[in-house]
Design goal:
This protein is α/β, with parallel strands linked by helices and about 375 residues long. It folds into two domains: about 170 residues, Rossmann fold (3-Layer(aba) Sandwich); about 180 residues, Rossmann fold (3-Layer(aba) Sandwich), CATH 3.40.50. Helix content is about 35%, strand content about 15%. It contains 14 helices and 13 strands. A seven-stranded parallel beta sheet has the order 3-2-1-4-5-6-7, sandwiched between helices. A six-stranded parallel beta sheet has the order 10-9-8-11-12-13, with helices on both faces. Helix 2 links the parallel strand 2 and strand 3. Helix 8 packs across helix 12 and helix 11 crosses helix 13. The longest helix is centred in the N-terminal third of the chain and has 17 residues. About 40% of the residues are buried. About 0% of the residues have low confidence.
Length: about 375
Amino acid sequence: MVKNKIYYIADFSLPNKSAYSSHVLKICDAFSEVTKKNVELLIPFLDSNYLLKNIKKDYLLKYNLKIKFFFNKKKKLNLFKRIFYSLKLLNYIKKNSNINLIISRSIIPSLILSVFGIKNILEIHTELTGMTKFLFYLTRLEPVKKNIKFIFINNHLRKKFKISKKKSIILFDAVDYRDFNPKNSKIIKNTCFYSGSFSKGKCLEIIMKLSKKLPNINFHLYGNENTIYDKSILNKKSKNIKFCGYLSYSEITKKIRNYRALLMPYEKRVGVLIKNINVESYFSPLKMFEYMGSGKIILASDLPVYRNILKDKTNALLINNDIKSWSKNINNVFKDKKLNYLGKAAREDSKKYSWLKRVRKIIRFYED
């Protein structure tokens, strides 16, 4: 039988508001484009009202995607449910012999597949906690080790896991720059844009201070307000801060055209939705690549983790985390039209980090 199928395993359900879901759906689409194979996404649950045509519209998918789900209602996945989900996946995959590649963003399914002799690639974006961290030690066992390879989004993260270079590859997040059209936009005057989550350390602390320092500048924040780490912030915000709600990926590609200044203000400790994890030294923000693809001006905290991608005064403005510096740079962006070169350079650089190139690297890595 000719092998013509790629499985991608994830542990989110659809619909979903996370960057995680955007990453997975866009890379599945890229696998379809590069390989011309049948790509199947395996997830816990898909709402029957969320049709494929809506998924394609929300994520600007260019190819049809088969989605297989294993539960009849949405579940919060604790350890035991993850194991149950993994066993369902194992049973489903064992019935198929025409598989080219299995790639997973879910750790426990990847480990269980490896234990049962099924080769796969596991992509890891954060440190592990709890029992999952303990179970990961299974990868040290030879019968498991030979069946699994790893993708990390940062070399610092690979060092944390102590995985050899032979068994792993470093791949940053990516973007489909074709989804963004920097032209034909009507810029909202004196207004900054932010999109993403509102976890501790990600934007709110700095923007709250900036809003007071810059009363004539507006700040439009797009994202899921359920991720705000401290809801009391909503009562303290200045009038020039507006929480604009969650936008789908396709809506962001249109909305972002209307802004000149795109903000990435990070504290020294950067949180995620997993409690007590600081990703400051190894994260690869998906929004950074979307910002780059948009061709607008990026203002970002000066962090070593992405300094090889964003370069100060070359394709972005990297700013020390004092409010005076942030204020000065924001004012300059709105006053100096000569800074437009930063957005043009960022868009050109985004082409180096396309989903298509990322997929080709994964395939070469898997076949080595």
